[in-house]
Design a protein that fits this description.
The complex is a heterodimer. Chain A is 36% helix and 38% strand. The longest helix of chain A has 14 residues, at 132-145. Chain A is an alpha+beta fold. In chain A, strand 6 and strand 7 form a beta hairpin. Chain B is an alpha/beta fold. A 6-stranded parallel β-sheet of chain B has the order 3-2-4-5-7-6, sandwiched between helices. In chain B, strands 11-10-9-12-13-14 form a 6-stranded parallel β-sheet, sandwiched between helices. In chain B, strands 16-15-17-18-20-19 form a 6-stranded parallel β-sheet, sandwiched between helices. In chain B, strand 19, helix 24 and strand 20 (534-539) form a beta-alpha-beta unit. The longest helix of chain B is centred in the middle third of the chain and has 16 residues, at 346-361. Chain B is globular and about 70 Å long. Classes of the chains: A alpha+beta, B alpha/beta. Chains A and B meet through helix 1, helix 2 and helix 6 of A and loops of B.
């Protein structure tokens, strides 16, 4: 089967060890996690994990079901890039002296729609949000012209193109079903 | 009134209906054992000789009783010794609550004496692991643990309780758990899937059913047979599904898988609709997936959504407890008759009889004793009413193939994990769960020696298990594969064994040694004459093979005899 990049979204209770519970499902199948980002979700007490990995569809289906099976996981699902709006954020540290000496930094900032976060005597920190290729291209250009002292890129954050956050629907449904004596 | 965390734990266990605890004390769990001392009239506490034994005994208990088995052990090595039992219970869907001691919460992460990250170790092999660091957590954590262990697809849970949580005091009120918003095991029946399944079954010319552990766990034996009878569908069982149907039930066509019967294995690949009921298409059942059931549309009755389409893709998935989903489908299927199809199994049954079974059950007088004839003799002597416990290997396959059953919930075997050494402690647990039934354990010389220290538990508890040691002085199943697939290079499989009867005598356990066929029946009579523990050592053919066999990685139609 064809391998491509899948984005796995996981909603979980906020308790210790949750990340481990999720990553072991990937580890068992020797799937490399490309990016990972974790943060509180819009619903209080529930955490959201966004994970990207290259694999095939059969495998990602099983992975998602095995994650979902863990007791403290509320919901896990996967998407392909065409179903998502997604971003990454990157920070670039460059040398102030070199920037001043060489000039031309404003062209790069305009070209990549980046912004200046901080200007210090010894360094300047730029920020860019965008797709992986975009943050990478800016890195390449800076590296070639001025040189980059430090570079960091976040994991992917993603939102589905659907109207609503699916978890809130699910939580509502659980309440409805509870009154009927079944869980789902 | 405030009570200690340890006492709270005792009360919480009572609140969950626990009557039996298997365990082994140690430094980080002493406060709990101290509390247990005051509860000896309320719990049957069983001191095993090793923590692994405690987990397998709890598994044997759980499998026969149908409710969670409970172990209490200490931290560090005590806790790590439970790993095999936890992993085994996970693969075989056995409800287990393993309570382990842990160092004080202030010492966590410092490599303190007997500190092991048990939560970290058990996360991948347990249904749920939780560390209790404050006695206030005991009520809800215990309630949640029992709910998780026993509901949905059952499994092992781990409660790691720090020593301070055992000693500190708490206002205790028992809790009840019947709902966790992130865990939803009770499903409503999908009527669309029910209709689709009924249509497929009604249109099938050659339907076949596969019965797994889910039927026993769901206590759906009657529902199963009502379903099979109405649609007139031949059924085979996985080793975890044995005894869900009586051996002599007209639609029971035997065992599938690597050492299963020829007919159901061949017929799996001929059937047009394959109905999997509470089973998970393990590789030992399917063989080569590319060659598995190529003509069949698959209907999968299954409680665990993660099993759907994991190994075998299905046409219809019926999620839920088979106790509910089977009758829903039964009500929509038509009364049917598949006589020609069912009769077509007979030629393969005859082939297996001629080539394998008759040779195993009625060998020539000058041949050494065969595993199959020993198993069948004991099955006959107990009239099909005994509980069968097995260890792992040739002894296991021979026992599962040749033991016969009239009663449901009568098999305890290590299926998914294939844990050698499972037998003796599991038999202890099974006998404690069903003291009025005869419990026959079949094991080999290898597995026996992995947990034979549990003979000590047997005498201390006066547990009347009947141990039949099929001795060939080899690690027989590995030897068999070496003979068939590794040019008879018997690497590390011959065993120099002790005098097993002398071992039994050292423990004061009655024993006899059978080397000749004509000694067998009187030894069996001696073994079954009372309800005391017994070790029957039978010297069997060292060249014995368990046949037929689907070679590892081959298709079920490539079964060899």
């Amino acid at each position: 089967m064809e391998k491509k990049l899948y984005t796995v979204t996981v909603f979980s209770e906020n308790i210790p060890g949750l990340l481990n519970q999720i990553t072991i499902v990937f580890t068992r199948r020797q799937i490399n996690i490309e990016t990972l980002s974790v943060s509180p979700s819009a619903i209080k007490g529930i955490h959201k994990f966004t994970i990207t990995a290259y694999t095939d569809e059969d495998t990602i289906k099983n992975v998602v079901k095995q994650i979902d099976k863990r007791i403290d996981i509320l919901k896990a699902y996967y998407n392909t890039d065409d179903e998502l709006i997604y971003q990454e954020i990157a920070l670039y540290k460059i040398e102030t002296g070199k920037v001043l000496a060489m000039g031309g930094i404003e062209t790069i900032i305009r070209k990549y729609d980046a912004r200046v976060l901080e200007v210090l005597e010894n360094c300047i920190v730029l920020e860019k949000t965008g797709l992986y290729e975009e943050t990478q291209n800016m890195f390449n250009e800076l590296q070639q012209s001025i040189g980059v002292l430090q570079f960091i890129r976040s994991g992917r954050v993603a939102i589905t193109k659907d109207k609503k956050e699916r978890l809130s629907d699910m939580l509502k449904k659980i309440q409805e079903y509870r009154s009927k004596g079944v869980d789902v | 009134m405030k009570i200690s965390g340890s006492k709270a734990l005792m009360e919480a266990l009572l609140n969950e209906g626990v009557d039996t605890i298997f365990g082994y004390p140690g430094g980080s769990i002493i406060p709990v054992f101290d509390a247990l001392y005051d509860y000896m009239d309320k719990f049957h506490y069983v001191l095993t000789r090793h923590e692994q034994g405690a987990t397998h005994a709890a598994q044997g208990y759980a499998r026969i009783k149908g409710k969670p088995g409970v172990c209490i052990v200490t931290s560090g090595p005590g806790a790590t010794n439970t790993i095999t039992g936890i992993a085994d219970a996970m693969l075989d869907s056995t409800p287990l609550v393993v309570i382990t001691g842990q160092v004080n919460d202030t010492m966590l992460g410092t490599d303190a004496f007997q500190e092991t990250d048990l939560i970290g170790i058990t996360l991948p092999i347990s249904k749920w692991s939780y560390q209790i660091r404050d006695p206030k957590e005991i009520a809800f954590a215990v309630a949640k643990a029992f709910y998780i262990a026993g509901s949905g697809r059952p499994g092992p849970v781990v409660l790691d309780i720090t020593k301070n949580a055992q000693s500190e005091h708490v206002d205790f009120t028992p809790a009840k758990c019947d709902f966790i918003r992130s865990y939803l095991p009770n499903r409503s029946i999908d009527q669309y899937a029910v209709t689709k399944a009924a249509e497929l079954i009604n249109s099938a010319k050659k339907p076949m059913a596969l019965v797994g552990h889910g039927v026993t766990i769901g206590e759906a034996e009657q529902e199963l047979m009502a379903f099979l009878d109405k649609a007139d569908i031949p059924a085979a069982w996985t080793i975890m599904g044995e005894s869900a149907m009586p051996t002599d039930y007209r639609l029971n066509k035997g065992m599938v898988g690597m050492h299963g019967n020829i007919a159901p294995n061949i017929k799996t690949n001929e059937c047009d609709v394959l109905i999997a009921i509470g089973m998970r298409f393990a590789d030992r059942v399917t063989g080569d997936l590319k060659r598995y059931a190529p003509n069949a549309k698959v209907i999968h009755f299954e409680i665990d959504p993660a099993e759907i389409n994991k190994n075998v893709k299905c046409e219809v998935a019926l999620l839920g407890n088979v106790k509910n989903t089977l009758p829903a489908v039964t009500s929509l299927i038509k009364q049917n008759n598949h006589k020609d199809w069912i009769d077509s199994f007979a030629q393969y049954q005859a082939k297996e009889n001629d080539n394998v079974i008759s040779k195993e059950l009625n060998p020539k007088p000058d041949e050494p004793l065969k595993m199959g004839e020993v198993v069948r003799a004991i099955s006959n002597a107990t009239e099909g009413n005994a509980i069968l416990v097995t260890d792992v290997g040739q002894n296991q396959m021979a026992a599962l193939r040749y033991f016969q059953f009239k009663q449901k919930r009568s098999v305890v075997t290590s299926g998914g994990a294939g844990t050698m050494g499972f037998g003796i402690p599991a038999a202890i647990g099974a006998k404690i769960a069903a003291p009025v039934r005869t419990v026959c354990l079949f094991c080999g010389d290898g597995g026996f020696q992995m947990t034979m220290q549990e003979l000590g538990t047997i005498i201390q508890e006066k547990t009347g298990v009947k141990i039949i040691l099929l001795n060939n002085n080899y690690l027989g199943m590995v030897r068999q594969q070496q003979e068939l697939f590794f040019s008879k290079r018997y690497s590390s499989t011959p065993m120099l064994n002790p005098d097993f009867c002398a071992v039994a005598k050292a423990y004061g356990i009655a024993t006899s040694h059978v080397t000749q066929r004509d000694e067998l029946s009187s030894a069996i009579n001696d073994m079954l004459k009372d309800d005391n523990p017994y070790l029957l050592v039978v010297e069997i053919d060292e060249n014995g093979l368990v046949l037929p066999m689907v070679p590892p990685g081959k298709g079920n139609d490539e079964i060899i005899v």
